[in-house]
Amino acid sequence: MSYSAFRIFKEALTGHKGWKPVWRKAEPRAQYDIIIIGGGGHGLATAHYLASIFDKKRIAVLEKGWIGGGNVGRNTTIVRSNYMLHENEGFYEFSMKLWENLEQDVNYNAMVSQRGVLNLYHSDGQRDAYVRRGNAMALHGADAKLLDTEAVRRLYPFLNFDDARFPIQGGLLQPRGGTVRHDAVAWGYAHAADKRGVDIIENCEVTGFDIQNGQCRGVMTSRGPIKAKKVGVAVAGNSSRVMAMAYMRLPMESHVLQAFVSEGLKPLLDGVITYGAGHFYVSQSDKGGLVFGGDIEGYNSYAQRGNMPVVEDVCEGGVSLMPMIGKARLLRMWGGIMDMSMDGSPIIDRTHIDGLYFNGGWCYGGFKATPASGYSFAHLLATDTPHVTAKAYRLDRFSRGLMIDEKGQGAQPNLH
Amino acid sequence: MSLVDKNVPLNFTFDGKAYSGFEGDTLASALLRDGVKVVGRSFKYHRPRGIMGAGSEEPNALVEIHGRGVCEPNRRATTIKLFDGLKAKSQNHMGSRNFDLLAVNDFIHPFLAAGFYYKTFMWPEAFWEKLYEPVIRRAAGLGTLTRRADPDSYDKGFLHCDVLIVGAGPSGLLTALSLGRAGQRVILADDDFRMGGRLLSESFTVNDALASEWIGEVLEELSEMPEVRLMPRTSVFGVFDHGIYGALETRTDAIGVGGARQTLWRIYAGHTVLAAGATERPIAFANNDRPGIMLASAVRSYKNRFGIDLENTVLITNNDDGLRTDAAHIIDTRGGGYIANTAGRKGLRSVTLHTGEKLTANHLAVAGGWNPNVHLTCHKRGRPVWDKALACFVPDAATLPADMSVIGAAAGHFSTHSAFADANAVAKKLGAKTPALPKAEDAPIQITPLWHIKGAKRAWVDFQNDVTAKDITLAHQEGFSSVEHVKRYTTLGMATDQGRTSNVVGLAVLADATQQTIPQTGTTIFRPPYSPVPIGALAAGHAGQHFKPTRLTPSHSYALENGAAFVEAGYWKRAQWFARTGEKGWRDSVDREVIMTRNSVGICDVTTLGKIDVQGRDAGKFLNKVYVNTFSTLKVGKCRYGLMLREDGIAMDDGTTARLSETHFVMTTTTAKAGPVFRHLEFVRQCLYPDMDVHLISTTDQWAQFSIAGPNARKLLEKIIDPEFDISNEAFPYMACAEMKVCSGTRARIFRLSFSGELAYEISVPARYGDALVSELMAQGEEFDAVMYGTEALGVMRIEKGHAAGNELNGTTTALALGLGGFVSKKKDCIGKVLSKREGMIGQDKLSMVGFMPVNETDKITNGAHFFTKGETHNAQNDQGYMSSVAWSPSLNSYIGLGFLKNGTNRKGEVIEAVDYMRDNHVNLQVVNPHFIDPEGARLRV
Amino acid sequence: MIINHPLLGPRDASEFTYLGDAALMLRPNPKSDTAADSFYSYQYIRENTAGQHRELWYHEQGDRSWLVVTRNISTHEITKVELARDVKRAKAINNEAATHELG
Amino acid sequence: MSNLKPTLPLGSYAKQWTSLSLQERYVGEIVSIATPQGREKDFSSGFKTTFGKPPPKPNCYVEAQNAQIIWSGVGQYLALIDGENVRADIDIARAFKGRAYTTLQSDGWASLVMSGDKCLDVLERFIALDLRPAKADFAARTVAHHIAVIVIKLSETEFQLLTPRSSAHSFVSALEHVVEHVVQPQS
Q: How many Cβ atoms are within 10 Å of B416's Cβ, its own excluded?
């Protein structure tokens, strides 16, 4: 079914009786050409691009629970393409371009809202690193502007300019950055993929791989075995668990990242702000809640929840940057499991098992990558060659010494 | 008989109008007593709303508290303890609360059904940010946050107890009493300002007397027990790992009156007894959201606790408990009665029954049954289970944290008698003797659930977010059948009340739509916090300058008095430069400091560099493991530069290490890496080589350390060094170190080190003498025109000298890239050596550090620029590297830079392009040796 | 979280700094022919199994001990806390054994 | 003697509230003493000879003549020694006959003493340690407001706090903030 203003008007007058499910409740078939494990943003996007760009048929997405229940539904909704290393910037800028056309592509309003992402700096060293980053962005055709203190003050006069432990010296602004209504991304991709015949199968947990002679021939699931020519895994947060069923160990740890939302407030904050002297970033949702977050908890975890020290650390950052939010109240907090890779960058690659493909290691940057990740993974699954923007995301880059380490922290995932 | 003190009147204003209430009132009770009906507006349709509950479950009566020029938005009027001078305002309206222009939304509601925005506003593409979204954003949101700093101050603290009891109703009080008598450390917390729980709101008796008498006796005894801490107005909002609970204690609702407005407690409990009671839920029927329609339990609270008789009350109930409410007319749905509609936009006027009969009513009490407050049992992902007989979710023993017990109504044991019985059982389990059970009512639960009276009109489920029963069925129709999908699609339960009154009703409506039972349909998980927590309280004590500690150097006072500008270096404040009168900008000062140092002598406080005492018989062997070069062979009385790698082969830190004796080394680290390096060394010592005899102690704060650099450095140092010590070039050559005495017997360590490239020493004295030493050095240096120099001049000189610093040791560079490949010992293993040989980290095409000078001498070099081979297109594929450090060199009269260039070592002399879009500065640079000054190192050896 | 320090008793986890899998104590033999491979695995590959996890915590704001904490990373329940040096001494006959297993 | 004037980290800070006082206390010298690996017995006897007592257990300190010695880590102790002697580390190493590694730490710490009935009410708003059941010889290192602190119980109403010199001013201002929420300024 297609959505339009006219359709809403018509349905409103006829008691909304004509609306159909956004995606079908598909039943698993015995065999597919391509199976995607994971009905999150990345998996559904992969299915959508496989069907729409690469013209593939007989595709299924297997989801152990309900679609969009993983990290696509539990993040802080920020999209941006402001990376320093070329291996990342090309990919994320590709993603940004796909975001900019997403709604028209999937016929679903995911509220892509480009109100700007501002990264603040508080020292000469940070400024210089942002200049290097801004220049890298420019070289990929992305937009970046270096702001001084006064320019930041004009944008956000209520930040702490007078009594800050680490005074704001300026910021790197990406005007095209912004936020996207996260749940709607999953629903939108599901809607579009479904229209092209992709089977989206919920409550279908993969319990094993059917691997014979180094070749993956399908999967075992809670709803029976399903054969497939190719299997793509897109289960970030649970990558190690799923790949262990193929006897693979990954360069990855699972960590928990908490996110927070305040009670609803009248409009206050237009874009996204990232604090350079504390663990705090914030935006305001269309409903009025301040959506904010900080650093990962720092210890391995598969529990989707965190602890007090990080909550306090994030709020300390928030109050020191925006003293007025002392009077706003934290309404809800939740945790998501991050695939923290060993260099802070993702992996989109074939595995040593024929027919088994892997997409993961998104750390806490997976949401903004959703379209490009789906597109690149679809490219890899369809053509067996990496997409041009995702060529560096290889599994063997660690053994070869080709790490993509934006933060320069080395092989310690909790520092990325 | 009420619990407000009519002898203590309190004056307050609401929307500017003066009212008065009494001590013991909440804002809600005082407004009700004064006949205020409309208190606020709903989120989406801007419907007029009144007061629905009497506690923290209130979804409607949200107000702002004003004071000291700011407001606290979204406060439930039912939890604000009335105080004299309170200024409250209604919120979420355009116009006044009685005439809200946005109420137009209520009349076009068919177009605003659940999820309508996902299906439109997509065309034209550019209109979203410019037109549609701003309109939506303006209409959304609830209260307003003042754009001014929060004037309040907060505390944060830590409490420890054997048993934390959450909720001071009958079960909590009795448990506390038994445990307290047994001498256990008990914390009894309740979010109400008065302890007693539901007993305060009902007309029950305990031991055949008024319940309030029993409460009074228990509280009196508890308050005299030293190991029992009574914490009223304390909301236990979150359950965390290992028995840690988050709690918020509120001292006052007044803003900016001094002291801590609230205290955030981290409670460490051996065991927790959840006695949090239960919350009554409404029933969904047509226009069930009008001002005057209230929970039956709230009607009883206002009557019994606050002494307010709500006139013209009709009751609708599906259970016996509701029948406790005084009402002129009772609709018991178990007898087939129900409500078809209500009327009265700004205050209930009438109720239409299923028979068509219209009852005049100003208040409607709704009793839909009770939901145990199981929230805290879910924070660690426990899942409550459905109890069919009670028609509610109760805690599931199987998923309950092992250190938590749930008693009383929170466990689904609703009568006062069963609450007491639970209390005694849990106290016994926790090892306490228990008193005889107080005599109390023991009414059974008689309920026939009724969730939703279907009809054509809207029936509210989530009052605050304006989610109606129809929205839920529409979501189901569109395929959103998982309860999580429904929540996200309709926003059910996502408002500031976190679905306290709406979740179960919503689930029931969904169960009906999916033709399933409630437990089949699912449950929702409750996340912290139980009640919203001010961000200011969570950040207590860390606002403004207190965000992070400040570390001061020994010369801080001297620097303050001598015109220093300061720069943040981690937590340190370091002097950046010392301005003198007549200097027009920082460059003037920095240039002068560099020139005077290079011409004569300069002094710089380098205390911030990490200093680590490494002692032990295996200290040399240990340093061989952590440094790429060899230290075991270093002679006593000598220093050596050391480079340290991470195990992945990337440079981690560098510095000099001195050998003071066979078993004693002093290591220096960079300022930024002092902490991480110490941790790394301890890892190597304890986790890799625990049998080595090595001890580590940080001495960063112990020693005040100054660099004395320049051609006259020795002459200056000789003036203060005690005469028995010889620091001539022969006796104390470059890289020598020794313990000596200065200024008539002051213990000092002298290191002949140079970061600037000049003849230089570093002198360290116990920090107690640091302030005096810097003054003494400057006084003695007067004849040489000695200067203090700051971090900027330090930076200029190290760039002139071509030393890598933090900008180069950026976590991605190898020893090779830094031009330090030659330091790596071929004879021994060290941390990082094996992995530094991977193919991607070696080879000619890799980045290596070189120097840069502008071809056109007037051109400026900017840091962060990217390099391109001359004539090649500026794009990502052609990128040749980046600039990492830049300075104006007063010695060379030119900008100079250090940067990383592909195959840089072999490109000296080449002219490349440096491209900086951020500062719009594209210049031609010549690739040069990074050692701009004295590459042979002659000066530092004189 | 609370870490029950074997010498100091229960301490809030915020006194500690986390490193990762306790297998990081088993640095491979740099002289072995397979050093390149074993160092790659040692440094980059993690079991990351949901369930019991032996991991290294450093008591940075305390006694500077490195601890091996056995914690269930699905529930965060801690069942054992040991001094890392004791664990290393007990297990490591050869300090630089080219093994990936611990305990 | 040195012609350089020594300064205390907090410039002899002292402040009084109605029922609580906070003041910098000069502790003489502080020396870190570490046990050489494999020579634990020698070390113990050296300790006994030097201080006349066996070393303290974890979380504890011992009072010796002219000194207070705190357990600071495995095989490590922190000795607070009366009187000024900037070579105390060397002298102690000598007293141990080389059976100990010593490091001068006197200047690394600022020392404060908090006295009054409300000490515990202040400290529970400042550090996470459970001090109410603490024994008379309690001493432990922890963190407050991101700053390291060694807490030494002197009596039920008196605690000594050691905190690193460079951040001592921040430490005091954070502590004062809490104190002023608990007790009233002296009028």
A: 27
